[in-house]
Design a protein that fits this description.
Helix content: 10-25%
Strand content: over 45%
Number of helices: 1
Largest sheet: 4 strands, antiparallel
Distance between the termini: 18 Å
Radius of gyration: 12 Å
Order of helices and strands: HEEEE
Number of strands: 4
Strand order of the largest sheet: 1-2-3-4
Structural class: alpha+beta
């Protein structure tokens, strides 16, 4: 497991928020689960609680997102 996957997995375990840039926008999320969807390709399911979004949706809206 690489270090990013370890950090995310640990955050899920202890229910810690994460902050990162996704599509060049800052995000703050409450991570829910992490899975490998293909060789070396990971997806994070999380509630976005802060930062920005490229969609016009207001945050937080209570819907989980995939990153």
């Amino acid at each position: 497991m690489n270090s990013v996957v370890t950090v995310i997995s640990d955050a899920i375990t202890v229910r810690r928020k994460l902050s990162f840039h996704y599509h060049s926008l800052p995000r703050v999320v409450e991570p829910m689960c992490l899975g490998e969807v293909g060789p070396g390709t990971w997806q994070l399911r999380a509630h976005q609680v802060g930062g920005r979004s490229s969609s016009s949706a207001r945050l937080p809206d209570g819907k989980p997102r995939l990153f």
